[in-house]
Specification:
Layout lengths: L2 H26 L3 H26 L5 H27 L1
Helix pairs in contact: 1-2, 2-3
């Protein structure tokens, strides 16, 4: 097994553990902001996983997917912030 493959497996395990922790926080999070932050973390982990896969396999085929995930993360964060801001005023 090459060193690059070993690092890829190690990164995959770490991304998996982080994703499981984020899913637990999404399910058990006491507040809406905890769930929103965990969702952002899960999207960031997915983007890092895609970027690592692109680096390991030396291609840019999934770059569009990476950009769409980043767009969803930004739009989702802004929407939740606006929703929470309106909720706090009332």
């Amino acid at each position: 097994m090459s060193p690059l493959a070993v690092m890829g497996v190690a990164a995959g395990v770490m991304f998996g553990v982080g994703a499981i922790a984020a899913l637990v926080r999404i399910i058990r999070g006491p507040t809406t902001l905890d769930r929103a932050l965990a969702t952002d973390v899960l999207l960031a982990i997915a983007m890092c996983g895609l970027a690592a896969e692109m680096a390991i396999n030396r291609h840019t085929d999934t770059l569009v997917v990476l950009l769409v995930l980043a767009l969803f993360a930004i739009v989702g964060s802004i929407a939740i912030a606006r929703f929470i801001g309106k909720e706090d005023r009332s």
